[in-house]
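Data availability (excerpt). The following record was deposited with the supplementary files.
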Amino acid sequence: MLRPKPSPLPFVRRRPRPLLVLRRHPRAWWAVAACLALAAGMAGSSVVDRAEAARRAWGATAAVVVATRDLQPGDRLDAGALAVEPRPRATVPASALTTLPEDRVAGAAILAGEVLVAERLAGEGLDGPAALLPPGTRAMAIPADPSLTPPVAVGDRVDLVVALAAAAEPSGGPPGFTLVPDALVVAVEEAAVTVAVPRDDTSRVAVALGAGAVSLALIGQS
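Predicted structure:
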């Protein structure tokens, strides 16, 4: 009985191995290595060129005072809250401080990384609520009633509202009105909230306080 002949094995094409081929040809190996080194050098040079172009676009730098943490109105501007750092001159405001201020407090909220400008500082020698008063205003304490006064914080804005008895409003309009709009809160205590009132309105607020008719309305984002 004749046995069948075994079928020939299928031809398998081997995948080329570039590294093996290059190792067998040293000149080609070094040529490829030189090309890779040249490409890496060109990439590094491109990064340097872009950095130099950015430097030329921004121009020279200037050393200015920068906040190292968030600051709230009334916070003291000590060495731990500020630092002198370089910034591109094109981004530095004209009123930026170049030296650390001495014995000053923040007159407004300042964010970490913000360049400190003179307008953000309270008046020299001022502290507490007086340091937060905008020019032309006076601080007046408004009695706080936990059941009527909204929760407020220093820096908030409020309306001073006068509530009148219905018989006290001869025009027949609503028994009350806004006496001082958009007043700045400069201090908050358990018994009272101190707000900045325009100088010309202080006498009217005092009369309303004497009648016990002033309430605070907290202003949110417009």
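Summary of structural features: The chain is about 20% helix and 25% strand.
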